[in-house]
Fold:
Amino acid sequence: MEMEKTYDPQQFEDALYATWQEKGYFTPKIDPKKDPYTIVIPPPNITGQLHMGHALNNTLQDIMVRYKRMQGHPTLWLPGTDHASIATEVKIVDKLKAEGKSKEELGREGFLKAAWDWKKQYGGRIVEQLKKLGSSLDWSREAFTMDEKCNKAVKRVFVNLYNKGLIYRGSRIINWCPCCKTALSDAEVEYSEQDSFLWNVKYPLSDGSGSITVATTRPETMFGDTAVAVHPNDERYADMIGKTLDLPLTDRKIPVVADEYVEMDFGSGAVKITPAHDPNDFEVGMRHNLEVIRVMNDDGTMNELAGPAFCGLDRMEARKKVEEELTSLGLLVKKEPYKHNVGECYRCHSSVEPIISKQWFVKMKPLAEPAIKVVKDGEIEFIPERFSKVYFGWMENIKDWCISRQLWWGHRIPAYYCEKCGETVVSEETPAVCPKCGHTHFKQDEDVLDTWFSSALWPFSTLGYPEKTEDLAYFYPTSVLITAYDIIFFWVARMIFSGLEHMHQIPFSKVMIHGIVRDKLGRKMSKSLGNGIDPLLVIDKYGADSLRFSLANGIAPGGDTRFYEEKVESARNFINKVWNASRFVMMNLEGVTLLPIEKTKKTIADQWILTRLSETAKAVNDNLEKYEIGLAGAKLYDFVWSEFCDWYIEAIKPSLYSSDETIKQNAASNIYYVLVSVLKMLHPYIPFVTEHIYQNLPIHEETIMLSSYPTERSDLSFPQEKAEFEAIMDIIKAIRNVRAEMNVAPSKKLHITVKTDKEEIVRKGEGYLSKLAGVESVRYDSAYVPEKKVSSAVTSAAAIFIPLGDLVDTEKEIERLNKEKAAVQKEIAKSMSMLNNPGFVSRAPETVVNQERERLAANEEKLVKIEENLKNLAD
RNA sequence: GGACAGUUAGCUCAGUUGGUAGAGCGUCUUCUUGACGUGGAGAGGGUCAGGGGUUCGAGUCCCUUACUGUCCACCA
Structure:
């Protein structure tokens, strides 16, 4: 197959993915003799469209998965989607609204049908988009949080927790979203600081002896007040405790109670207590046996307990009216501007009302304890480690988890109420007979479960739990969970305690946390800002490989990353470089019988690159084992571009063009080996282009995907020759430097004289000097005394003299050499000061001291040569 | 209020157990040499936020200050 001059990903990416999938490369073969490597995908919402966060997350997972697969582990990356209860329901309600229909009109069944239709139509979008990215997911195991398997797991878990007393139903203050009309968990509320007011209201004492002023940010809740609390030690109110107050705008009398919850220094030191609408007040209410009066409906309007004048008003209208009436009664002392945090629904962003409501809860303390322990004990490791602190912070202060949602799209709570006696029966199937009264008709609980309840079971529900499947036995616990830090609470923490509770085993041994993708200015990408970049458009323009590499290369663990097109361009350029290097190699393989690398003759350039290849392979493997994906990527980038392409390919050209067939064959075999190794090492990052090139090589296995990942090769490491070639490289760089500074055209061939005590090394490098520095002839003369008009290039190994005739501007040459001299002197001074420090010599490791001595010696040699040259020029 | 990050070249960021500060982009010079101009060669550019400490040696470890950001808590 001919390779085009320029890399064009559109020509092969989709086709390659289809082939990989058809051949079943993504599906692991279960082999009890081998260690499996398993990742379950953080299931994207079915409402979702691939965004940069997904692109980053899946790129990182795919890199690890492809790497481990190439190492020979039976590797499973399990795909799936999340039903996203609230997000999907909101979306479908909106769609119905646009069609002039409502949820209520359709009824539960009709609505669910519409939801499933919607899921069928759009739920697969993101799945297709993941394929565009190149994700090597095992589609034969694709899961959905509401499929049969997962439903069964959810029911089993719910029943088990209920039977253990870890799930209960009760009236608590919960977060209520009046817009979505459902309860939310604490984690689903986002707080933001907003400008509001603090209303100071006078509550008169019933006996007419005065009044107490209270401050509130939600005056409309006053209809639910059942006390005013003051601090027991507060002398200002000491004689009022126990008296009653006339609650304004109502005909109720409420007591003044003493409670240590009150901060004496804040405001007036008196707090109105509204147990039905504030979690703290609820606690106070419990302590003082206060009545709980809920004055708000589910939709955020006031109910009849707010009185006829307010009943039916929206909470904000009611707030206004309360203010007006209090003002006209002269009870509003003042209204001061006040900034405070307001909770918002994480889905619709309307402000959340704390409200008392009867809901289902998971008792968290007993579940949290073992979940804290496994991380403390290191059974589960967070990468980077600092995120374990975030985890502990949450787990150690965890409150019970409100899991019921007043929605229809989701797992319906498996609780049944006897229609006759009201007995609650929790079971996986509809019960036949009431255990209490023998009645046979039940009504199932109307609510569904929090989306995250099913996500929490994902690592084992997808593998077959509660059945004891082969998958579950082999692939659980999974190897690592890779996700962004923003769902540590929602998901990671809950999977950990769920795995421990239901599987009696951790769900994964590592949690790799990465950052989020920001825009060029560092802002979070969001719909409202309109600053998101669609990964699919990037793929269309640059290819999935470029996108992947631009996301994964050079990122720091746990850190956010900024995304902008120049980065993708840079990645594309790199891939183009790989493409052309490959093209070059292939051009030189034609008609050559390749030798195995162990059998080839090797030049010092070959030995140098093989050594560097081995070193790079070792470094990259080390990094990947530690999930240092960005670092490994940067090393590959540098090795491929600056060493393989810039030096090795150029250095090997004479051998490849040689008329001696043996030289040619050996050179071709060596560079072929290096190229294949490079492609393999890059494959996890840029899977498409590496496979495409690989398939075009004259000799290759069936797929690069299942070839073995390169590792350190001590049998192909040549430290001595590597050092020699590096000495040659130094000379070449020095000569190039002189050429550039002296404005010597590349076409001008040089005749150089070399003064060195390492003549045999320089001799080995003559061919490279010719090819890479334009040196036509080399003369060795240790007694050489240069004349004027001779420029010089100095390295620690040799002094190179380059007669340039009139091209040499003596003054400029002196200036240049002086500059170099100063630099070398500075280094010498530094080395001397280190070596003259007795502490350094005695306490630093021997290798470091020796290294410093060598450095000093090399620089001193260099200095001598420079001074000689300067002397000659001055004469 | 608490916790955690970040502060390194003009810009965006790496820097893996402390051992001579790096890359990409941009800038300047130069080269159409038979893989690649999405390229080659060369250059310039940083007292690693400030201060203190530990150490033979600190961008890296400790303390502290400042600024930026994120998360958690929620005194009504």
